[in-house]
Amino acid sequence: MARAAREITPGMVVNLGIGLPTRVVDHLSADFPVCLHTENGLTGIGPAKGQDSADRNLIDAGGAYVSTVPGSACFDSATSFAIVRSGRLDLTMLGAFEVSATGDLANWKIPGKFSPGAGGGIELAQKARRVVVVTTHCDRAGNPKLKQACALPLTARGCVARIFTDMAVIDVTGEGFALLETAEGISVTEVAEATGAPLALPDSPVPTF
Amino acid sequence: MRLPDKTAAMDEAIAGIKDGDTVMVGGFGVPGTPMTLIHALVDHGARDLTLVKNDANEPGMGIDHLLQSGQVARLITTHLGLNNHAIELMNAGALTVEFNAQGILAERIRAGGAGLGAVLSDIGIDTELAAGKQVVEMGGKTWLVEPALRADAALIHADRGDPFGNLAYVATAQNFNPLMAMAAARVIAEAETVLPLGQLGANQVHTPGVFVDHVVALGDLSEEYAVVRR
User: Fold this and answer.
1) How much of chain A exceeds pLDDT 90, in percent?
2) If you count Cβ atoms within 10 Å of the first and of the last residue's Cβ in chain B, which end, N or C, has fewer?
3) Residue A21 has what pLDDT?
């Protein structure tokens, strides 16, 4: 999470998807200059609120109670997605069921098992200027989430630029997956074995995070 | 001159909703969901409804009451993730669900409210969400045709209103409310406070009263509007 938070650079407009990505915000300092956006109609998300101090009218898209910061703005759902589709969103961090070697993302539907609808996820994946995925490297059964091609219905094609997992940081390049960094205590071989497609290795030693 | 008074009793406002109607319901989670109007629609009993709502609330809350009472045949929505009951109904074939991308649902409703026929969008164009949709070429690009959405009735929650139907929203309780308030033949708004004409400043109005047919003043808010204890 701390490594993924470094993906956010000063001045960005950022949307953090439901699930693991939301926790990235805990690693940003209070004076870091960034504008966080949530689909249900808020720019300038402040720290999360506990039940006792929450404003009943102020939630993020995952239903968590949040706060505002000086300069926050509230707006309707059409305006919120105008921000997304028109390229004002510099970065989104999304969860994933599968990511393909060409950057296809599947994160909304497992036919017959899980189909609650994609909400705003399709527009985030297709239209944010940069899409990074924050996920566990493998699913609960131990199968790789990074694959040559996605088997599940796609959220968007060719959208993912970078993947942060519990094992590694991996870029999606024109030639497929490329290893950038490994987690401390994880070997390059372990990452390659847990990845369901060829993994290009850098010429120099792989840094750890 | 004086602007007309549209304040109404809850049951009178709801009475015009008929079996088979399409009803838009504002809200995203609890904020902006017209909990009181939803209970009035349960009491009214109209059946075979098509609901248009961003989400299905949570079990035992908001539109889940209409799902539990069996009044809903079809739901046009974006995400049901917080309501397992809705997912069970869908999986059992007891509820037809049409999923839309969230911003596209918003634009379809906005187009309906603005007197337009459709919007052109490339969202989901190369995924299964594009299946069955009309495709057009425009400006050298390929677009999906997303038909405008209108409803027989819209149920709206506002923070403040006035007797003419001018409405103002707060925080993330705005969401789909101002869009749906433009897109139905009969727009019914519940307002936490109904101020005398002139007290809701002209520059504070989010939804002009011309779009609104009935305004209902809420008294003390029920627990359903409160912070959810999970």
Assistant:
1) 79
2) N
3) 62
Residue A138's CATH number: 3.40.1080.10
Average pLDDT in the A135-153 region?
96
CATH architecture label of B10-116+151-225? 3-Layer(aba) Sandwich (3.40)
Residue A181 designated active-site: no
Mean pLDDT of B71-83: 96
Report ipTM for this prediction. Answer: 0.96
CA B112 from centroid of its chain's CA atoms: 13
How many Å is the Cα radius of gyration of chain B?
A: 18
For residue A81, the chain B residue with the least C-alpha distance is B103
Q: Best residue in A76, A89, A107 to probe B by mutation, most B CBs within 10 Å?
A: A76
Active-site residue, from A39, A98, A123, A181:
A39
Bridge partners (DSSP) of residue A67 are: A46
Domain boundaries of chain B, sorted by first residue: 10-116+151-225
Residue A121: give the domain boundaries. Answer: 2-200
